[in-house]
Amino acid sequence: MKKFLVFILTAVLAAGIFAGCTPSEDDVDPGIQEPVYTYDEVSTSPDYAEVDLTGYTTYYFDAENGSDGSSGLSESEAKRSLDAANSLVQTVTEDTPVRILFKAGGVWTGKLTLGGFTATAEKPLIVDAYGQTETEKYARIDGSHIALEINAGKLRVSGLELTAVTGRNGIFVNVVTPGALTDLVISGNYIHDVNFRYDGEEDVTSLDLSRKEARDICPDSTYTYGHGAIVLETNTSEYVGPSWCEDVWIENNKIERVSRVGMFLTSSWARRPGMNWGHNHYYDDETNYYPHRRFVIRGNELTACGGDGIVLLAARDSWIENNTCYYAQLLGRTGFYNAGIWTHSCADTVIQYNEAAYTQKDNGAGDGQGFDIDIGNSDIVFRYNYSHDNEGGGILFCNTSTLETVYDESGEIVLDDMGIPVIEYRFSEWDRVMVSNNVFADNAGPVATCNGYVNGICFVQNTVVVLGDEPNGKVISTNDYNNSMEMGGGWTFYNNIFVARGDAYSYLDMQFCDSYEFKNNIFFGFSDAFYSQDAIDEGNFTYDPQIPLPERAEGGLTGAYAFAAQAAAVYTDGMDIDVRYKLDYASQDAENIDYIGAFCKAADK
């Protein structure tokens, strides 16, 4: 197993990069040696260990031909019911490693509950399918409320098809004991039609849904974050004590037609400013605060989520990698704000090689961006992502204060001189966010929307193609959020390409930012008035980078290769920054190439 020291890379990487978000000096005093530029390795998420099946007892379940009176120890002696499986799970101990296999193509009705057992990280409980064919790849569980509930770690779940058409969850991870639920792998499952009432013959993503049709598929009463394909919560009470998760992999799952959310991974023990729910009496991020640690969310395919696609809250040392999210917020409605893939109250997190596209913004819905670095994030590395055709824009940066009771280090309420509890508006840190080597193409809104008190955005070596077809369209948008009256700042925009398809007047709205710099970027195809803005000075270029501009953005990460510039100057005019990646968006060797945009040279598919 790869050592979890790999996770330390995130913090080290962030520390190195953010120190290098400023340009190096071109003019060097005589006798002073020019800097030697370093190129960071591009790391990927860690793997979990393979399991040695020696010593395991395997039990088989067959929905058609099994019998609960059978031993279950062979395919010919398979057991049958979920009740029998749930009872068997309760008998699993660390000394009796068990593998439970359901026959692919079989259909069970009810709920599979995986809890009340003990196992080890080396010998976890394994739940999977057997007897797969080209047409039958999964064992199916149709849940009325929840198809699969998980209450314990040291567990691996694969090969299941899960539905709950009028129910709550495909998979509900519910932490019910204090401390950390650890070593959980949810891999290779198919979760669909959860809280999603649609039986039409047409692909639902091809429909222009009215407000009424969206509510017919999912009514307002169940359009909540508790409803979705995979929901994780830490629901221990104050009396029981704090709980959280560590070392969790959610990978290679296929999720379709779910509402409200594809994945919602939250906590009831991670309250802090900006995340104003939870049992803990927050003092600071080291005291009375219990975030998740080491989540890996990778290789998942999400299509037609009624609200958000992937939401990770209150996590540290985590990875969101190689996921695709199409048609998020498909069931939007007034007063709701959803995006494709986003984090909230996270730190030391890498978000890379993801594609978010076709996020909707109908029926009065808000946001609608492909990605979102939301409230209370810091030390985030966002690289090699592709955001295209999203109705709300490319990416959202957001932060706000919340009204918080003040506690001391012991968890006791702080009182003022009159004995009244002290309550203050407070912010969590939002800083050191590196946005590098991404492609943003053909999004209907701004490439970046910056709401509230967000600091330290380093936006470098990205390729941006805007539609440019809306008068007074914002390429960058800044706003107050919740009337916090605090401006963000310290934003740098270096070595980016901005190209407009149309020449309707567009502009950079930087009014709610107290310090920023645009330097060594290419701006091309905009209206004449665009170039008169203060942000577009002599430190930028206006020549044609010769991006081919296909009729529309193509899907798949390699679809972004069509936006690689052809002009030779693009690959020599880059400004030196102190720390750069060894690879560009297309995983081409970028060392010693002074390039602008996401690509260090034209990219081949």
Architecture (CATH level 2) name: 3 Solenoid
Task: Kindly identify the CATH topology.
Answer: Pectate Lyase C-like
Give the CA-CA distance, first to last residue: 33 Å
Q: Which range best describes the helical content: under 10%, 10-25%, 25-40%, 40-55%, 55-70% or over 70%?
A: under 10%
Mean pLDDT value: 92
Q: Any low-confidence stretches, pLDDT <50, length ≥5?
A: 1-17, 25-36
What does this structure look like?
This protein is mostly beta strands and 605 residues long. The protein has one domain: Single-stranded right-handed beta-helix, Pectin lyase-like (Pectate Lyase C-like, 3 Solenoid), CATH 2.160.20.10. Helix content is 4%, strand content 36%. The chain is built from three helices and 45 strands. It starts with 7 loop residues before the first helix and ends in a 24-residue tail after the last strand.
Brief synopsis:
This protein is mainly β and 605 residues long.
Layout of secondary structure:
Blueprint: H1 8-19, E1 38-40, E2 57-61, H2 82-89, E3 98-103, E4 107-109, E5 112-114, E6 125-130, E7 139-142, E8 146-150, E9 155-158, E10 160-164, E11 169-175, E12 179-187, E13 190-194, H3 211-217, E14 228-234, E15 243-251, E16 254-258, E17 261-265, E18 292-298, E19 301-305, E20 310-313, E21 315-321, E22 324-326, E23 337-338, E24 341-344, E25 347-352, E26 355-357, E27 366-367, E28 369-373, E29 378-383, E30 386-388, E31 393-399, E32 402-405, E33 423-426, E34 431-436, E35 439-443, E36 448-452, E37 457-460, E38 463-466, E39 473-479, E40 491-494, E41 497-500, E42 506-508, E43 516-519, E44 522-524, E45 579-581
Parallel strand pairs: 1-45, 2-3, 3-6, 4-7, 5-8, 6-9, 7-10, 8-11, 9-12, 10-13, 11-14, 12-15, 13-16, 14-17, 15-18, 16-19, 17-20, 18-21, 19-22, 20-24, 21-25, 22-26, 23-27, 24-28, 25-29, 26-30, 28-31, 29-34, 30-35, 31-36, 34-37, 35-38, 36-39, 37-40, 38-41, 39-42, 40-43, 41-44
Antiparallel strand pairs: 32-33
